[in-house]
Task: structure prediction
Amino acid sequence: MMTEPNMPVTEDELHALVDNELPADRRAAVEQWLDAHPDAAARVASWRAIGHALHTRYDAVADETIPTQLELDRLARPPRRWMIGVAAAVLLAFAGGGAAGWFAREAAATAVASEPDPVNAMREEAFAAHRLYIGEMRHPIEVRADEAHLLPWLSRRIGMNLRAPDLSKYDLKLLGGRLLPCTEGPAALLMYENEKGERITLYATKLKAPGSSFRYQEADKYGSISWVADNYGWVISGPADKPRLKNIAMAAIEQGDRR
Amino acid sequence: MIAFRPSVEAMIPALRRYARALTRDADIADDLVQDTLVRALRSERLFHGGDIRSWLYTILTNLNRNRRRSLARRPTISQLTEHDEASANGTEAEGRDIERALSGLVEEQRSALLLVMLEGLTYREVADIQGVPIGTVMSRLARARAHIKASLDGEKIMLRRVK
Result:
């Protein structure tokens, strides 16, 4: 069939060519037209390169082993029993392997993260508190570390025996703490500081959520590590330095373990 | 009657790929896929044939839109992509460039571009998934491509300057 090489080619047709959406009888004409229009041909080539780059970057994801959280049999089970199973697995890992086991349970824990999420809400509260109070020069805390009633008071209010981890290994000294409102009740915020004035906060509150592994999140210059264990949510916030925050979180958990 | 579960199962790798490119975060992506699968399984009895593939992409696309809306209501926290695999050989650097370019797109454009170029869907299918006319899909695609091209060209210029 004769096509008209001179028939104007539209920009839409160029896209359609790249996407194999062009009718077969028009294809040859458009390709011929491209031979005479190097600018358009370069544009088409650059679009094809985008497709190539996308496949190069993301096809490997489709080849990965499918995580257990996505197994259909698992997802089809009644959710409640399944959630308890996950919580139990995480707690077992906690009791058995200590903090190291937490990371190994990443897959199990992220399975929970998509449920309507009290953990996210807590993390945001903690993060907001961090950003607000570390900026306070005169009153970053309510009760100073050297006041003996600090920990007994916070412990009583959040309903658990709260201890302040020793973070001197990270050059961090406990400044003190304060009580805050959170969605499910009161929360305790402990603040640490190093000689450079850098501040880290540890946030703890009662939280009805399955146990989870560490999750790191950052915004602006700040990062936070959060986790859930034994119906308490924990968040450590500080300058966005993931390895350091992870180490601090591990230290907090290890010291908690030894009690 | 088509075998429902095997058809859904066969789509998991492609859904993960799409979700990863859509969110550029491995955890969020798999959470999205999981939500998609849970919803799909819940509707198993309601599904009377039709294109399972398009249906799953539709669920995932909508869930991601909801997720982004709820994030937008809480602007103080945004999940950032982790670059743990940041040893930069050429391919990985290229991968990061395309990832960054994707981040600059408006959600609808990103989704249209990925469904067409990465997942190989037709304009018609993408129009149904996004609930818009084909012409809108095409203009989203065109804008996405122009933006990505500009972004990638910009990276190259930056690189040349650094050298």
